Every structure is written in structure tokens, then in C-alpha cells.
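pipeline stage [seq->struct] | target=Thymidine kinase | organism=Leersia perrieri | residues=272
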Amino acid sequence: MRSICAMRSLLAASTFHLRSSPLPRSPSLALPFRLNLPRPSFGPARSISATAAAAKSRGGMEARSAHSGEIHVIVGPMFAGKTTALLRRVQLEAGTGRNVALIKSDKDNRYGLDSVVTHDGTKMPCWALPELSSFQDKLGTEAYDKVDVIGIDEAQFFDDLHDFCCNAADRDGKIVVVAGLDGDYKRNKFGSVLDIIPLADSVTKLTARCELCGRRAFFTLRKTRETKTELIGGADVYMPVCRQHYLDGQIVIEAVQPTRIVLDLERSTVML
């Protein structure tokens, strides 16, 4: 009986000790780059001891092997927040001590060529390139080897997206975060974004708000009669719409002048 009581007392004491232990606090995140830099920054130079300390602070992770890369894909229509999600992910990775780099197509010069910019004005420095295969040469082999995370915005404009992601993740062990349109204004495959889905560790499909009824928007409606697939533009050329207003919009575009599209679609919304 005494041994049973002693055992219960011991268990009670250990339980109290576990419950009263304070929870560990998360370290504050500090980004290793400044948004006003004219060129991309990959963080301050760190000594070998500093690098080891950073690795220890991330939970004692071992050095990244040559085959431990990842690919994460973010897709959706225009104005769905793809670039915002990309920057948030890159900032999160940078906050853990990883070195990051951003790339976008030099075809997209709406907000300048030295930054990836969201529609609400948030921006980060980037490399604007005609093709992804030139990134390592532009950066230099030594600097490329130090990059842990590569973010790619407007990925639909890169024809070599598949090969680059394969090499960066499988061969070089990089974490690659890709953001782009999965479909064009005709709801057809756009570029090579869908080709990397089988390679991806994760795929996130974002939606916007239909500008005409407020429902979830899965598609991008082009407001003009321009038929080429690659047409750079913002709210003056495109709008996110739900399925019904996408179908209605295609009929209106074929029947009326572009300046009347929104008015006619709003009339059709009232009739729904």
C-alpha cells in the first residue's frame, strides 16, 4: 500500500512539473534584406560560426543535402493574391535565416524591372530575366550556391520553367516557390505552369472576388478584343469573374465595343 501511494505521489509531482513548464517562445523574425535596395540582396555575410549558430537555432537541422529541395506552386486568376502569397512565403523563409532570391520575367515592366510588386504596392527587389536558365550565370556560381530559396513570379512567361525547377530542386537542393496564372483569358493552359504540378510538393489554388457579383472568381476576363495570349495589363485590361460572368462576358465581348463591356455585364447581373 505504501509503495502504491508513493508511486501516485511521484506521478502527481511529475505531472505538475510538466504542466507548469513555460512554453518556449518563438524567436523574433528579422528579414535579411531591405526593400529599398536597388539590386536583390541575399542577406549579410555570415561567418562559418554564425552559420552554424543559425542552423542550431532552426532546431539542429543538418546541412541541406543535394537532393532535399522543394517545389511549391501558387496559381489562380488575376487579382487573386498570388504575388502577395509568394512574397509572404519568401519573407517567412528569410526570417528563418535562409538566403532568398526573387525572379520575375522582364516582360512584366508595369511597376519597373527591379522589384516584384503586388497590386497594392508591396514590393521586394528581384532579378528581371528573359529566361530562368540565365539566373545562375547572372548571379555567379558562388552566390548561387549560397541561395536557399528561389521565388518566381509571373511564372507563365518562362518557357524553361520545368527544366529550371527540376534542376534547382532535384540537383541543387533549392526551395523553389512559383507563382503564376494556370490559365489564360480563354481558360486554356498558360505557359509551363501546369507542367510543374507533377514535380510539386504542394499546390495552392487561390481565388479572387468576382467584380460583378462578389462571388468567388476562378477566371480572368479580358475586357478587350485583343486575341494574343500574352497581353500585359492590369485592371484596365482584365477583371476576375465567377463562372457565370465569365460566360456572359465572352458573349458581351463578341457583341459590343470594349467600353460597354462592364456596363452590359452589370445589367446582366441585375437580371440574374
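stage status: PASS
auto-comment: The first helix runs from residue 2 to 20. The mean pLDDT is 76.
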